[in-house]
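User: What would this chain look like folded?
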Amino acid sequence: MDDNFYTRKDVDQSTVELTITIPRDAFDKSYKNLLEENTKKAQLNGFRKGKVPTDIVESQVSSSIKIETLEKLIPLYLATALQKEGLLPVAPPEYKDFPKLDGTEDITLTVLITIMPEFKLGDLKKINVQKQDAVITDEEINEVLTNIFKNNKTEFKEMNDEWAKETAKILKAEEVNNMQTLREYIKNVLKTQKEEALKHQLEEQVLEQAVKLSNISIPQPAIKYEAEERERSFEHDMQARQIKVEDFLKANDITIEKMRELWLEDAKQALETDAFLKAYMKERGIKFNDEDLAKKIEEIKKNAPKDTDPSIFEDEEWKEYIRRVSMKDLAFKRFIEEVVPK
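Assistant: Here's the prediction, encoded as structure tokens.
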């Protein structure tokens, strides 16, 4: 393959235009090979299988084989060009036009490649959030007690100390022996839950501000592709569970249009977070080396179910996935420590 089979033009920060030329001799060679394969499989009245003359087969399937030839060659040439340019697409390539396949000239086609722009961190000192205390009211405690009383049938007709002791067994709360200690137990549980919810809410707020301060703007084709991936995953899950999509939508009182809106928003937020954390890792010099990866894998091994296939721990793609996830987790942790008030 000639090194000069393509040219590059940067359209904008997130779009690269590649003009690829497939030499006619390479196209013709691939075309003839596919034609021979089709000839061997061809069946026609008056001829034995595989004995149909090539010119007859070609007259019937020439156009489709030329398209098949192009579909076979494009990924090879495109992948080579992407590798040489160090480009990592974040959406499927977009072909500007369909090339002419007839004649003797080389095949030329133009492809638009969507890439993720390079982002710089904004001034994170401008992030402004306020921590909230997890306050639990008597009304909230009473509501939980009432729900427990209604949903767990016992011999007691009212909430008293004896009922509290019986309820403690259901809750596996050994420290509870009367109504007062039951109320304290519920208060502590509610406080822990609310603290965790407030923590996540605060993290979402600082992350949203950081994305805005860093001017993170995700290319629309990337958002669209990620949203479509979510839809495909949803359809596959429904099929695996033998549930019709329309039945699921009806049962949850939601339309597919609304689901697509939610997938788009979710994809946008996920890509923004990913882009910000990558920029944060780069500018803060956060590393996750092979030793760190080995420790993480050992930790996963210890907590893995006994019937886990051990070969997974040696799979290079899986290791790379663990590395990426671990780096993002580490970056997020460092980011929160930097910007959230103590």
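The chain has a mean pLDDT of 91. If you want, I can go into more detail on any region.
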